[in-house]
Amino acid sequence: MSSVRADADSHPAGSATTVGPMLTVNDLSVAYEMDRGAVAAVDRVSFELYPGEFLGIVGESGCGKSTLLFAIAQLLNPPAVVTGGNVVFKGVNMVGLTDKQLMAVRWRDLSVVMQSAMNALNPVKSIGAQLKDAMRAHGVTSADEIAKRSAEVLRMVSIDPVHLKSYPHQLSGGMRQRSMIAMALLFTPDLVIMDEPTSALDVVAQRSLMVQIKKLQAELGFAIIFVTHDMSLVSHFSERLMVMYAGQVAEWGATRQVFDNPRHPYSAGLLEAFPSIRGKRVPLTGIPGSPPDLSQPQQGCWFAPRCPKVMPVCTEVNPDLYSVQDVQVRCLLYGGPAGGTAPADAAAPAEEMSTGD
């Protein structure tokens, strides 16, 4: 297991760094059990999340980022199954809890904002009715309290409470997504997990929603795990960034460090795939090839067939995570037979990290 810990200065204002991590993911692995064999979608992922932090997880479609979130929230359905590791949230291992035990945690302590609000919301119930259902499921029975809290959370996300009577199809894409965020904040949870909540929105609505999320985080102090395939989206909002490829952590560190000096060739490729609004015009190179077929055995680095810096050893040795200053990188350029950096050790003292401004 490898994890990078931010120092006190890199935590957002108001976060409780002295009480330890809120969430600890240890060597978490998830596989899809198919007739032709198990397909590893998440491979030994480890990290810690502290109160009030904003962690971004990025990568191409199929890299395992959404599966990782569903494993953390224990929302996996067959054929997906956790095959190793654990998820410790506020001192409790979530893996193996019963549905009744998970119900006591979800919404109150941990909530999830799904990728497509139109699919996640019930199309035949009004927004108010769905908020009422969530509150009643957790023991709130007072009609006045339900009405007051429902109106309050809609105002928090800049939606007029008159839309409590609206149905999902009557709202714009941005309003539906904000309604999902309002529902996630009904009980002011400590952790909100967001699975590509901006994917169906235009760039203006994306920016507006991200600003709204950060404002709510500053006011309420909850931590966020935010999954997206758009690295530019989280560049100014997350404190730390995890880049995933083929179910593994490719690079992991402070957001500004990863953006300003990407070590892994995959991270650099993702950044080069987005146009810059400043500086000279440069061609968008992108990343050649396609993501790997995880159902096929692979010797060496998963990224080797697409890597512009591939070496002969890359097709023979599976790289570990290597510590490079305050960042961890799964690349033989920085460790193993081809590099000079020791593998990141889970038992070593926590690394210091500065996010920059």
Compile the SSE list and pairings.
Elements: E1 23-34, E2 37-49, E3 54-58, H1 65-72, E4 80-89, E5 92-93, H2 99-105, E6 110-113, H3 117-120, H4 127-137, H5 143-156, H6 173-184, E7 191-195, H7 203-220, E8 223-228, H8 231-234, E9 240-245, E10 248-254, H9 255-260, H10 265-272, E11 322-324, E12 327-329
Parallel strand pairs: 3-8, 3-9, 6-7, 7-8
Antiparallel strand pairs: 1-2, 1-4, 4-5, 9-10, 10-12, 11-12
Helix pairs in contact: 5-6, 6-7
Explain this structure to me?
The structure is a single chain. With 357 residues, the chain is an alpha/beta fold. The chain has a domain at 120-188. It is built from ten helices and twelve strands. It has helices at residues 65-72, 99-105, 117-120, 127-137, 143-156, 173-184, 203-220, 231-234, 255-260, 265-272; strands spanning 23-34, 37-49, 54-58, 80-89, 92-93, 110-113, 191-195, 223-228, 240-245, 248-254, 322-324, 327-329. An eight-stranded mixed beta sheet has the order 6-7-8-3-9-10-12-11. Strand 1 (23-34) and strand 2 form a beta hairpin. The longest helix has 18 residues, at 203-220.
